[in-house]
Write a structure and sequence with these properties.
Blueprint lengths: L3 E6 L10 H9 L2 E5 H4 L9 E5 L4 H13 L3 E6 L8 H11 L7 E5 L4 H9 E2 L5 E5 L7 H13 L3 E5 L9 H13 L4 E6 L7 E6 L12 E5 L5 E3 L2 E3 L6
Parallel strand pairs: 1-4, 1-5, 2-3, 2-4, 6-13, 7-8
Antiparallel strand pairs: 8-11, 9-10, 9-11, 12-13
Helix pairs in contact: 3-4, 6-7
Bound molecules: S-adenosylmethionine (SAM).
S-adenosylmethionine binds next to α5, β9 and β11.
């Protein structure tokens, strides 16, 4: 039997936001691989093996998925949100790069709704003009580079979305990020904290940079900082499509 490997995004949390394409591929799968809470979102059934693993083993997980597919498995690697945004799709290609024997495998990447876009739609339209996304974790890059990018993105006038803003193992860096943002953007710039978007634990708040404190973010939060024109309209936050 010919195997295949699909890397699929499960969206931000609400099952209604899983695309029909991803639902269809999960129904055909023999194996589902991924970080424990993401695999937990896939219903067990006969003929389906679930392979939940810890977060820090992305490359091993990708190699395991390639092996299973090469043996004839119909393998789905699941990510939250979109699999190409700070997630497993890159890890799979990194594994293929070091193991060219898998180069001919049938590999597909199926998109999902990334946290930034789910949060933006809850807020209104904070990403209506140019924006960028930055992962604030220094697990895979030096903190100095993150700070450098924060400054340049601020100076370039981008709205910004931050993934992985703050964790228990690195509680102080987000406080430094807020300092840098205040220096570059001033205290009146709007910053939104969107936690567990589209789940039952969803919590969303918008404050100014002067009012923001690090404890407003955790690892389930995506943070959106507006550009100089971003403003409130009623309960919404929006960024005009043109520059003032
Ligand atoms: C490793 S990244 C994975 C991102 C994912 N691939 C995506 O496209 O959304 C994990 C980070 O995504 C953000 N995130 C994921 N799901 C979220 C949700 N439902 N609400 C808010 N932030 C979320 C958080 O910033 C979290 O620390």
């Amino acid at each position: 039997m010919t195997g295949w490997l699909v890397v699929a995004g499960l969206g931000p949390g609400d099952d209604a936001l899983i695309t029909p394409e991803v639902t269809a591929v999960l129904a055909e799968a023999t194996d589902v691989i991924g970080y424990i809470p993401y695999v937990a979102r896939v219903a067990a059934r006969e003929g389906l093996a679930l392979h939940p693993t810890d977060n820090r083993v992305e490359l091993e997980r990708a190699r395991h998925a390639l092996e299973l597919a090469a043996e004839g498995g119909r393998v789905v690697v699941v990510s939250s949100g979109d699999p190409g945004v700070f997630a497993m799709a890159s890890a799979v290609f990194e594994a293929v790069e070091t193991a060219p024997e898998y180069g001919d495998l049938d590999i597909r990447i199926l998109p999902g709704i990334t946290a930034m876009l789910a949060a933006a739609s809850r807020l209104g339209a904070p990403l209506g003009h140019d924006f960028c996304a930055i992962n604030l974790s220094d697990n895979l890059k030096p903190w100095e580079l993150i700070e450098h990018r924060l400054r340049l993105a601020s100076q370039a006038g981008f709205a910004m979305a931050f993934y992985n803003p703050r964790s228990k193992s690195r509680p102080h860096q987000f406080s430094r990020a807020l300092e840098v943002l205040r220096e570059e953007c001033g205290g009146q710039r709007l910053i939104s904290f969107a936690r567990a978007v589209t789940t039952t634990e969803e919590a969303i708040q918008t404050v100014t940079l002067a009012e923001a404190v690090p404890e407003m973010a955790d690892m389930r939060t995506v943070v959106i900082v507006g550009n100089a024109d971003t403003r409130r309209i009623g309960r919404f936050v929006y960024t005009p499509r043109s520059v003032s």
